[in-house]
């Protein structure tokens, strides 16, 4: 979803209420001093693991004030288009995800090959990670 309105109109509150009504967890990133693209990608990894491996429906609330580097928008665009960010997970982390996805694949009746585990992970991430962009026209 994309919510556009001037500050103080209730974009974040509306998102939180909608997430609560839908039974989803609403999460934001915390911008602190030194927060950059690497920290953003670590947060996205955590969201994807939470939604893909653990299967927890989650709303990722992202506001225009949280855009530190424009590459963040490119990453969100990739998530919205394909459900993944290319080369986000290094090989060792992807191996761990595949290992964690084996019981999930078994439960779904999907053969537990590496490709099926990755595909199921991405599919579950796409189904469970809901991105809400809150922007100001100013």
From TrEMBL:
<feature type="domain" description="Dynein heavy chain AAA module D4">
    <location>
        <begin position="1"/>
        <end position="138"/>
    </location>
</feature>
<dbReference type="InterPro" id="IPR024317">
    <property type="entry name" value="Dynein_heavy_chain_D4_dom"/>
</dbReference>
<dbReference type="InterPro" id="IPR027417">
    <property type="entry name" value="P-loop_NTPase"/>
</dbReference>
<dbReference type="Pfam" id="PF12780">
    <property type="entry name" value="AAA_8"/>
</dbReference>
<dbReference type="InterPro" id="IPR026983">
    <property type="entry name" value="DHC"/>
</dbReference>
<dbReference type="GO" id="GO:0007018">
    <property type="term" value="P:microtubule-based movement"/>
</dbReference>
<protein>
    <recommendedName>
        <fullName>Dynein heavy chain AAA module D4 domain-containing protein</fullName>
    </recommendedName>
</protein>
<dbReference type="GO" id="GO:0045505">
    <property type="term" value="F:dynein intermediate chain binding"/>
</dbReference>
<dbReference type="GO" id="GO:0030286">
    <property type="term" value="C:dynein complex"/>
</dbReference>
<dbReference type="GO" id="GO:0051959">
    <property type="term" value="F:dynein light intermediate chain binding"/>
</dbReference>
């Amino acid at each position: 979803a994309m919510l556009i309105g001037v500050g103080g109109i209730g974009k974040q509150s509306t998102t939180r209420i909608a997430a609560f009504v839908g039974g989803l967890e609403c999460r934001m990133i915390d911008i602190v001093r030194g927060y950059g693209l690497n920290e953003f990608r670590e947060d996205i990894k955590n969201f994807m693991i939470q939604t893909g491996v653990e299967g927890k429906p989650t709303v990722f609330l992202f506001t225009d004030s949280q855009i530190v580097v424009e590459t963040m928008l490119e990453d969100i665009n990739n998530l919205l288009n394909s459900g993944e960010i290319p080369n986000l997970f290094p090989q060792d982390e992807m191996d761990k995800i595949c290992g964690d996805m084996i019981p999930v694949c078994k439960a779904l009746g999907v053969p537990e090959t590496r490709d099926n585990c990755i595909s199921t992970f991405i599919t579950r991430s796409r189904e469970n990670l809901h991105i809400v962009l809150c922007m100001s026209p100013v």
